Amino acid sequence: MRDESCAYCMIGEKDELVGAFGIPICELPASQLILFREQSHRGRCIVASRRHVDDISDLTEEESAAFMADVRRVAGALHRAFSPDKINFGAYGDTMHHLHFHLVPKYADDPFEFGDVFAMNPGRVTLTDAEYAALIDKISAALLRSRHDKGDRVNCQVFPDS
Question: What is the DSSP track for 103-160?
Fold first, then answer.
């Protein structure tokens, strides 16, 4: 099932929906990886289920395990790409009823909010197209160098024009 008003469901068809807050990077086995446009936390991404479900409990056990494996892969890639001091994981859905996790790298030298809950959209840092492309390249390369997957590589299918 998909919802034509849902930004995550319509990636590739109505890119202006996700484009309001993110840039699609690639498809993973159970999810889609999106770079969050607001980059107060360098490398912040969203991992969104490829299925339109409201909650992780709406997935089968196998689907849930695959989704969480994608979250783990992306977290590992963010650690390799940016060396954050910590990654915060946020799974909210009060207004966006499509299962997704925010992966928010946190840095101890950031006086804005290290040691506190991350702001959803603080509006502090936006980048140029070239800077977004460089972040996407760095994340994609780190995904392909996955060290947590028992030797198998993540098959990251890059979205067109990302």
Answer: EEEE-TT-TTTTTSPPPS--------HHHHHHHHHHHHHHHHT-SSSTTPPP--EEPT
